[in-house]
Amino acid sequence: MGVGLLLDMVESGLGDRVALGDRASGLTHADVVATARGGASVITGYEPSEVIYLGRNGPGYPQVFFAAAFAGVPFVPVNYRLGDEVLGELIDDFDHPLIVVEERYRDRIATREPVIGLDEFLHTSRESETLPPIDVPDEAPAVLLHTSGTTSKPKVVPLRHENLQAYVFATVDFAGAGEDEAALITVPPYHVAAVGATLTNFYGGRRVVHLPDFDAREWLELVARESISSATVVPTMLARIVDALDGDLAETPALRLISYGGARLPLPVLERAMQAFPDAGFCNAYGLTETSSTLALLGPDDHAQAVASDDPLIRRRLESVGRPVPGMEIEIRDADGRPVGPGDVGSLFVRGAQVSGSYLGKGSVLDAQGWFPTNDQAWVDDEGYLFIAGRADDTIIRGGENIGPAEIEDVLLTHPAVRETAVIGLPDEEWGQRLVAVIVADPQAGISEEEVRSHVRARLRGSRTPDEVIWVDELPQTATGKVLRRQLVAQFERAQEKS
C-alpha cells in the first residue's frame, strides 16, 4: 500500500508524539493521520484526476499529501513562484484536478474549478467520516513532480508508492528519532526534498517545524527557540545563514545535523559553515526528482574525517556527494556506454527500487538493465566516493578542451569580494566558446576584471582563466539554488548579437 502503509505504522506506533509544530500545542502523529483519512473522504467526493497543492510549505502540506495518498489520487505540489500564464499552462496539463490552495494564492486561480481553500479543506477533513481503506496499487503514482527545467521545459515525474516506500525503508529507521528531536524544513513543497523530508521525518518520529518564507536571521532564531536538532537547507540558504553570522559562532546548542543539497555547495561556503556551526554534523544529500530524493550521502563522519585529515585525497571528499544509500547502485560510463574505473569522468547512471525512471507522456527512460541516465557527469574514487563534475550540458568546450565550470567557480568564491558566480561559455569565432565569469560582487569591496582574472590564473592553469567578466546584481536560480545557466547564456548571447 506504499505511503498508506507508512502512515498506518506511524499511527499505530507513534500516535502520541508531536508531529508538526511546537512541542506544547503541535499536532500529534495520530492527529495528522486522522485528518488525512478524513481528507481522503473529501477528495474522493470530487472524483479528481489529481490533487494539486498551491501553497507554501507548512503544516497543511503533509496533511493534504497524506490525504491524497489515502484516496489513491496523485498529489501534485506546484510552484507558487511561477507567473500566472505558466502556472495556468501547468494546471491545464492535468485532466480534472482538485486544487487545494493557500488563501494568499486563491486570486491566481479565481476562474478554476473545483478549488478548495487549504483552511477549509483541513477543517472539513477533521469533520468528515473516514472511508473504508482504499486498495492503492504499489505501482500507482503517489506524487507527480515537475523537474526544475534548468536545461529544457520541465517534465512531470511520477513517483510511485513503491518508489517512495523503498526510499523511506532504505534511509531511515522506524521510530528511530528521540522524542526530543525536531527538524526544521525550509525547502519548497514542490521540490522532491520536501517530499522526502516529510516522509522520513514522519516515519522516523521526528517533530517537524516549517519556515515557509526563508530568512537567515529568522532561521537562526527559530532553530534556537524550537530546540531544532536537524535542519535541511539548500546551498543558497546556507550561504546566507553564514553571511548573517558574519564570523560569529552560531548559538544553536540543540542543533546536531545540517543537511544540504539540491544544488552544488561551493567548498569555500561549506568550510565557513562548518566553522560557524562547530557542534553540528553536516550531511550532503545528492538526489534527483527521478530518484525519489537522496541517492547518495556524504555523512557527518565523512565530513569530520575529511576536515581532520592531512591526506589531500581524503580532504577532497568534502567535494564529493558521498556513497550510495542502501539499495542504490551507481555506474559511470564513457561516451560509448562502457563502464569506466575510478578516477575517470563519464556519464552517471543509477539503479534501484526508489528510481522512477519515467516521465508523463514519455514513459520509461530506463535501459534494458534498469539503469537511469542522470545526465550528470561524474567519477568515483578508489573508496567509492561519488564526485559530480557537473551537468553534461554545462561543459564548456574552449579550443577543443572540455572545461567544467565548477572548479573555476570554486576558485572565484575564495576571493572575499565575490559573493556568487556562474561560469558559462559564449560563442567565439576563434575558440568555439570563450569563458565568461558572471559575478555578483560585494558592493562594499572593490574588484576589477583584471583582479578576477589574476586570482584565477594564480590558482589554475591559463586555459581556465575567464576571457570576460560580467557583473550582475543577482543570478537567476531555481528555488533550490541551481543557477539557470541556459537563461544566462541566452541573455548574454542576445546582448552579444546586438553589439
Automatic annotation (TrEMBL):
Give the family this protein belongs to, as stated in its UniProt record: Belongs to the ATP-dependent AMP-binding enzyme family.
**UniProt GO MF annotations:** medium-chain fatty acid-CoA ligase activity
Instruction: Give start-end of the signal peptide.
Output: none
Enumerate the spans annotated as AMP-dependent synthetase/ligase domain. Answer: 15-360
Q: What name has this protein been given in UniProt?
A: Putative acid--CoA ligase
Query: AMP-binding enzyme C-terminal domain location, by residue?
Result: 407-482
- CDD domains membership: AFD_class_I
Q: Which GO terms describe its biological process?
A: fatty acid metabolic process
- Note whether Nucleus occurs among the keywords: no
Q: Which InterPro entries match?
A: AMP-bd_C, AMP-bd_C_sf, AMP-binding_CS, AMP-dep_synth/lig_dom, ANL_N_sf
Q: Which Pfam families match?
A: AMP-binding, AMP-binding_C
What Gene3D superfamilies does the entry give?
A: 3.30.300.30, N-terminal domain of ligase-like
Q: Which UniProt keywords apply?
A: Ligase
